[in-house]
Write a structure and sequence with these properties.
The relative contact order is 0.07. Strand 2 and strand 3 form a beta hairpin. The chain is mostly helical. The protein is 51% helix and 4% strand. This is MerR HTH family regulatory protein. GO terms for molecular function: DNA binding; DNA-binding transcription factor activity. It holds the Pfam family MerR_1.
């Protein structure tokens, strides 16, 4: 007798459907706190349909895409359960919609229309959390200590390019470190 799509599944049914050993499902419960089967008396597990869909996504990322457990945990943290459920179901439109929404949230706000722009502004990436002052760059007095003589407070085009290159290198290092975690 076939079960309804909304019916709860036992661990043996889920393991058979997804071609996974039962002990792997139990292990994943310890690594992914998003997988929460209902447990009845005697410890018997019953998986909700949304648990099974999430497990499909996790299985796909681990076995088919070669992600590590930490990598999938980061995906879940960054994108939420819906992202992995969509991956497990093969729903490309949902994946694209979630990705576009995340990119829109992470995008910096557009610059003010009246803000003056110089020729070097297009080289800058992102916004600084704190405004750097002249002392930080070794150019003399801090901003709040009065004006700096003309010409001595501006970075040369070469120094600015070197700083931009260092920023790109640091961002790439951060990206690589985030992948390892």
């Amino acid at each position: 007798m076939d079960k309804s799509p909304d019916a709860f599944r036992t661990i043996s049914e889920v393991a058979e459907d997804l071609d996974l050993p039962q002990h792997v499902l139990r292990f994943w419960e310890t690594r992914f706190n998003q997988i929460k089967p209902m447990k009845r008396g005697g410890g018997r597990r019953y998986y909700r349909p949304q648990d099974v869909e999430l497990i499909k996504g996790i299985r796909h990322m681990l076995y088919d895409q070669g992600y590590t457990i930490k990598g999938v945990q980061k995906l879940l943290r960054d994108n939420g359960n819906h992202f992995l459920v969509a991956i497990g179901a093969g729903d490309v439109t949902a994946i694209e919609a979630i990705t576009q929404r995340k990119q829109a949230e992470a995008a910096p706000p557009p610059a003010a229309a009246g803000a003056p722009r110089g020729p070097d502004d297009e080289m800058l990436v992102g916004e600084a959390k704190a405004k750097p002052n002249r002392r930080f760059f070794g150019l003399g007095k801090a901003d709040d200590e009065g004006p700096v003589p003309p010409g001595s407070g501006k970075l040369s085009r070469d120094n600015r390019a070197l700083l931009q290159e260092a920023l790109f290198d640091l961002l790439e290092c951060k990206r690589l470190l985030d992948q390892v975690r």
